[in-house]
Amino acid sequence: MKSMTGYGRATAEANGNQATVEVSAVNSRKLVDMRFTMPRELNALEPMLRQTIQQHFSRGSLNIVVSYKLSEENRRLQAAIDMPAAQAAAKMLTELAQQTGLQPPTIQDIISFPGVISENMSSSLEPLKELVAQALEAALADLSAMREKEGAALREDLLARGKTIAALVEKIAARGDDALVLQRQRLRDRIAALGVELTLDDERLTKELTFYAERADITEEIVRLQSHLVQYEELLNSDDAPGRNLDFLSQEMSREANTLSAKTADLAITNDVLVIKAELGRIREQIMNIE
Questions:
Q1: What is the C-alpha separation between 91 and 85, in angstroms, rounded?
Q2: Are 49 and 40 contacting, i.e. CB atoms less than 8 angstroms apart?
Q3: Is the pTM of this model over 0.85?
Q4: Each residue of 123-181: pLDDT tens digit?
Q5: Which of 107, 185, 220, 289 has its Cβ near the most Cβ atoms within 10 Å?
Q6: Within a domain: residue 174?
Q7: Closest CA to 269 of 183, 192, 185
Q8: What are 242-264's pLDDT values in tens digits?
Q9: Is 55 a member of any domain?
Q10: CB 17 within 8 A of CB 131
Q11: 1 within some domain
Q12: Is residue 25 assigned to a domain?
């Protein structure tokens, strides 16, 4: 199990060229969402980066920053002087200087003229492709290690909360019959308080008690909660990415807890259910960080 949050950074170098990739990840309910920050000339590498990242993540929001440094040789290859354009610019600027009485043009004036310096980015950036790929893999490995470490801590916390809920459910189940007897007695007391004389074998009282017992029976909710808790622990111990399934399961457990709370009038059970709801709330917050 992995957390969706983490950070990884790596640099790859060869022949004086250097590429650095940083990847930060935060939780998200969506599928993998990627945002890239890198020099415009590296935009062609984005499909390759996306494909690699998709192999490591099933969901989460990622911010990827790519930067690079070229060797001196490759920096020289980046720029080339167009000699015919330079000669034409020199002639034009010289004639303009003579006509206006200004100083003759300098080399800086000539190479600043549009079209004199041409950029050859493709050849100079070719060595960076492999370096960026290497740096990305290393950054993702760094990120994965952090996510696994945080995921292990999340698993331990969630397992402990699941055991707390399981113990409370067992406690409620043990009290369920007593609570039902108590509710029946309360119904009889209310009928007596109204001054209605009914014997224990009165058909009307029997029907009312039967209806009330069925409405107040929490056995079904107890069984479902126990079943959900078994699935919950299995998901936490699985090697898959259980985040979505855990999110759904926690919602189902919350529904059962709400129904259980609504069906019982027993104060002790109500208090235990409140603790269960609080634990489920914390569980859902933690699950938001699980892939």
A1: 10
A2: no
A3: no
A4: 556 778 899 999 999 999 999 999 999 999 999 999 999 999 999 999 988 876 665 66
A5: 289
A6: yes
A7: 183
A8: 888 999 999 999 999 999 888 77
A9: yes
A10: yes
A11: no
A12: yes
